[in-house]
Design goal:
Strand order of the largest sheet: 7-6-8-4-9-10
Mean pLDDT: 87
Radius of gyration: 24 Å
Helix content: 40-55%
Number of strands: 14
CATH superfamily of the largest domain: Alkaline Phosphatase, subunit A
Number of domains: 2
Low-confidence stretches: none
Largest sheet: 6 strands, mixed
Strand content: 5-15%
CATH architecture of the largest domain: 3-Layer(aba) Sandwich
Structural class: alpha/beta
Shape: globular
Number of helices: 18
Length: 475
Amino acid sequence: MKLDLNWKFNKKVLWVWLVFLIVLLLECAMKWTYGQFKRINLDEVALVIQVGTGGVDDKMLWGFIKRVIFRAGGWSVALTAIYQIFYNYKFVRCTLFAIVFGILGMRFATTNVQLGSFFNRTTSDFYEREYVNPESVNISFPKKRNVLMIALESIEKSYGDTKMFGKKGLTPHISKLQKNHVSFEQYEELSGLTHTIAAITGMTTGLPMFYTSYKNIEKMVGAHGIGRIFKKNGYQTYSFFPASGKFSLKENFLRRMGFDTIYDGEKLLSMLDYELDVKPFDGIDDGTLFRMTKPMIKDIINDKKPYFILMETINVHSEGYFTQACRDLGFKQETLEDIIKCEDKIIADFVKWFRAQDPSAVVILINDHTAHLAIGSLEQLEGLKSRPLANAFINTNVFYGTNVKRPVAAFDFFPTIIEAAGGKIAGCRLGLGTSLTAWCKGVKTLREKYGDKELERLMEQKNDLYYKLATGKGK
């Protein structure tokens, strides 16, 4: 067999290398994404492409560079060299292409690819029929209750299962809060609400987040947010969260939704006079967040004005972040299980502290989405048919007689939070959400009305009203 070792520049070989590179980049990206999050959601991918990687933590970014860009680049060069060496043998050339495209096809078949609205070209009038514009509804506050709301990162109800995770479970303190207060047992994620900014969008605007257009980087520009409603009714609005506000353009989003005072992780990090060992998403960890914000929150309480505070957590994101706060609490193993146990303790201690500062305030804990687990982490969850999310409404009497087993979604908490704070919503609905308070128990949630599969299908369809709400522009 005579091999061709002539390495003169050949445009055809350049095109072959580009094909190999593109296909392998896709395959490696799918493998890496699935390994990080156990799914590939194209709406999330489009969002990252639109807003860029600002705020992504260095560990994740470096992992992507090594396992996707370097790996795809290296293999594409090697395969192109083989192609050139065996250029005179058609069988070898065809086999190389078959192998590369076969691997990509196998990866697509074995990973959890969620198309969402990305390729959906069906149109409907779903949003015209079901969306309730907050600006067109009478919202009053007969009684104004102060509110602390914490959006929990990836805390599932099943973490408290003692059969699955041992004697106390992973979250004994949060499980106790759910048991002793109002907690909805069938709060589950839906399409368009499967990652943090999407879930926050659901909770604060009553809308899911889907791909719209690369020309419209900012999201929900035309929507009316929960902060505006509280502001209109005399509340001071605050948001504290540990990640950089650049990630998903979250700070911009929250300002549009009516939050006047915002401290993101980057701003809080700049206020420290010492170095952190862990900086999730260019920000701070949850232990540092709660410690730093305590004096700020005390000042808010002492101001004696009605307030609504939105906070978020980050430590349980993906593989989790083991921090000095966890070591100080006696946790030694840097495993996801210990990170969750540590997070449970940190959150519960902060809630206890806050309730001592303002005993009359309402405290709301709502998880954002199911855990984005790296392969090999908490395998017990993979066989579950249902994975409800943690939530608790503390120190409010508006739920007496309500059915806590009804199926609910993140957008149902949009009107529910307002009514838990003492508000009254004519018709019990805002956005796509239905208030879950006792006096609204006769009004169905959209999960009850349509069922999950049909509801997701309708939400994903192209719709002019949704496009206008998302982008602020008519088509």
